[in-house]
Amino acid sequence: YVTHFRAALRTEARLGSNKCVVDVGEGIGYSSRCCLIFCDWVGAADDEELPHRVVLKIPSSLPFRKLMDSLPPGQRLFDGNDAMWEMMELNLRKTHNVEVATYDFFGQFDHVPIPKLYYGKHFEEGEKIGGQICIEYRENSRVMNFHENHSVELLKQIARAIGKLNAFSLLKEPMAPELQKKPKNDSEETNNAKGFSGMFKGLVTRDKSDKAKHLLDLLDAISPDYMESNFTEPLIEKMQLRQVLVNGDLNNNNVLVDKDTGDLVALIDWQCTHLGFGLEDLHRIAMYSLRTEDRHAYFPALIKEMYTSMVDNLDGADHSYTLEKLLLLSDLILPQCALHFGASAIAFISNHARDPSFSDDEKAKRNDLMMVKLIGALEDAIKFDAKNKMLVRNLN
């Protein structure tokens, strides 16, 4: 790490005896080790402006395996043998290279709402260790929390940031091979429809009502359509929209906000980047952030914020998008976004229930809000699945 870091900064200074490392990803970064490094530079030139703290990210399945092991059987997305975990490690090495390529791509533009990359080391073919990403540490920031109800104004800021990033990949096509992937990617080698729907079984451990059991049955029926195929693809293709780079995992832990003002600071964690539509990211973060009734009421306005920001940052360049197309696309992709949100959210909720840091009363309060968001999103998945299938039948 030190050799790569000093070379990236082009400095002769070294890290002093007071350097230290703190794990800031425990319970947050489920597919990596995230370390906050206090540098303590020694021998820096007077005119050098070297970072005092940086974040080092190392891909690893160990945190995610720890999370899965903490869940009861039947609620685990990955509940397999060592060979399955080895396959996941292989996929993490691939997605790490995707994240490095993403930082390299967006680093070409000014005023990008993601942290600065100091250096990114790829995994070479056959290499099992050594991949690293070193990025700037954004002072006085924190992650958003799933157990909070966030303001619509913050979501508008995020929508504008997504729109700006969409514009960048319309202005200049991402050419790195790692960024040419479509959403159907290597994760399907270690995941399948049975495992995907199995995650929803955790729903009835958090809510034992007959309503939740019925919802689980409906989710089991539709999840294969969104895990193994995409029956809305013909409709989306007819819209002739150029795909853009999307984060692919824009949950609350991947959004940094200012501790004092609550304003957006940066979007982080780009290892799930793929070609798709910005609405994927917008749906996911809205589901994590807003109560269902607020999400329903304000989502059209969030789409407009994203669209306006994209157009403004295109500076008159041609594009295939209209606001009307985005509103239709929003309905088409909502079930898939809601199902992926739901599978992750159940794991987050179950893990939070085991956290000894909070009282039972505080846990119950947080659980209630997270469950409201979860149930609302999964009910939307059922509702819009039926709407989509009617659209497909009409197209046929």
From TrEMBL:
SUPFAM superfamilies: Protein kinase-like (PK-like). Pfam families: DUF1679. Residues 132-316 form the CHK kinase-like domain. It comes from Pristionchus mayeri. This is CHK kinase-like domain-containing protein.
